[in-house]
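chain below, 284 aa
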Amino acid sequence: MQQEPWIAVAQVGDNLCAWVHEGGQVTALRTVPVQPFVPALLELIGAYLRDDGVMPVMYALADAGHVRVPAPPPLDACVLPSVDPRIALSGLSSLYQTQPVDLLGMQGVQVAGFVAANPDWDGVLCLTGAQSKWVHISAGEVVSFQTYLTGEMFDLLAEHSVLRDAIGRATEGAGQDDESFHTALSDALSRPERVAGALFGLHAEAGLGPVTARARLAGMLIGMELAGARPYWLGRDIALIGEAEWTAHYAAALRSQGVPVHYYDAAEMALRGLQQAYAAHSIP
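prediction:
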């Protein structure tokens, strides 16, 4: 019997992504900015909605956490309040942790997708983005995880602090200053307590171009994060899940410490996780 059509929806970075499942085929739709959610969702999937029917839509929730670790990656789905009479919206909730208090959030669906694709993995995932997450996976379960606001801090400092003029926005094709990134990374990793003071130097140093300033800021913040997350990455294989720019920064940082890394696309892992959940729950 042919499965009825349904749509998978996930937030990846700042964008809302959707995949239409119909007739055994999966169609990826163009992405749209995620805020506000309901208009973005309707813009994204509106062409597939019918006035004479209801389309099942499964969405990875941002802040729901009902299952405490250690536990398998999130596959717990619940029916959400209707945002449109043509949509039956279901949410895939996430995992939470009490020591330290943390929430896997919407990135949990990427973890579920990774474990589905790599059932024998025993190691650590690093999910990059505005909120980076280090997730220890063993025997198909999430053992523990830790969230860092490194990406958010970068944006806040670059756009809403005294560093704004120094950081600027490097023009497209301006390249990367790898040497400055690695110098700042090494300094922050060895002496993270000095980062707050070193940050002001980006403002004080005359003639510092935006490419170098951005590289140094990224190196400082990622170095400080790696210092705190050392128990997760030291001596382990790391799978990086994310989008290009920040994932490249983390890959370079980890490889500089002799850590082998593997890369997986965030959107692909989110889709796998949503497909697993839909198959498990058969949302009407």
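The chain has a mean pLDDT of 90. The first strand starts at residue 6 and ends at 12.
thats it, cya
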